Amino acid sequence: RKEVEQDPGPFNVPEGATVAFNCTYSNSASQSFFWYRQDCRKEPKLLMSVYSSGNEDGRFTAQLNRASQYISLLIRDSKLSDSATYLCVVRNQGGKLIFGQGTELSVKP
Amino acid sequence: NAGVTQTPKFQVLKTGQSMTLQCAQDMNHNSMYWYRQDPGMGLRLIYYSASEGTTDKGEVPNGYNVSRLNKREFSLRLESAAPSQTSVYFCASSDAGTTIYEQYFGPGTRLTVT
User: Fold this and answer.
1) Distance from CA of A10 to the nearest CA of B (A)
2) Which residues of A, range 47-66, sit inside 8 Å of B by Cβ?
3) Min distance B82 CA to chain A CA atoms (Å)
4) What residues have CB less than 8 Å from A31, skipping those under 6 apart?
5) What digits encode the pLDDT tens for the residues A55-93?
6) Spatial separation of the C-alpha atoms in residues B71 and B23, rounded to whole Å
């Protein structure tokens, strides 16, 4: 079983739609959680950290459920520019980042 | 600031050839990392260097060696390339003194081994 698992998609949605990505992790001792964004043929970049109380950054909302070992990312009012691959990332006890395989999002006009 | 830079951007090797991928960062970060990214596999850690003078194996170190030349530079060497090493290689750095542990990535090296 992979340590971090995501639905690979692709998710194809119209502009303005709300889309949710889910992620599960297997190591209950994982310490920190993140969503990274990767544009086609580019490097990953940090989108947002995920806090236990949930957090929001504009149209993006991240949630963490430690009991279920589950992380989510909600994007409201999708824009064409949101098209990318979204990587769920977990930091383990040793301080290393473990990446999910990514969920591809395509927002259409 | 250039952030994290990598050279070369593209490389084609024949099986058995060797090469070194170069990485440099100008953010004064202590930690540096090498990943490979393959379709459906996500990013996998090859080697990392928590601080200048130290290196450790990651998830997939076989067939690779690294050198942390100084605080800025961290190179990855393929001694005898194999087709299974065809991949996109990313270098990253982080300031492990912060609480966020954000990693900053270079633009990647696309390597094909024939």
Assistant:
1) 12
2) 49
3) 23
4) A91, A92, A93
5) 999 999 999 999 999 999 999 999 999 999 999 999 987
6) 11
CA gap B99, A54 in Å, rounded: 17
Question: A34 and chain B: CB distance < 8 Å anywhere?
Answer: yes
Q: Is the dihedral of CA B76, B73, A88, A26 positive or negative?
A: positive
Contacts of B21 (CB under 8 A, 6+ apart): B6, B7, B8, B34, B75, B76, B77, B78, B89, B91, B109, B111
Beta strands (DSSP E) in A1-109 are 4-6, 11-14, 19-25, 32-38, 44-50, 55-57, 60-65, 70-75, 84-91, 97-99, 103-108
**What's the mean per-residue pLDDT of chain B?**
93
In this structure, are residues A105 and A9 in contact, taking their beta carbons and an 8 Å threshold? yes
Q: Where are the beta strands (DSSP E) in chain B?
A: 4-7, 10-13, 19-25, 31-38, 42-49, 56-57, 64-68, 74-78, 87-94, 104-105, 109-113
Q: C-alpha angle B86/B34/A81, rounded to 5°?
A: 80
The residue in chain B having the minimum alpha-carbon distance to the alpha carbon of residue A8 is B40
Instruction: Encode pLDDT of B38-49 as tens digits.
Output: 987 889 999 999
Per the structure block, which two tokens stand in for A40?
A: 């086609």
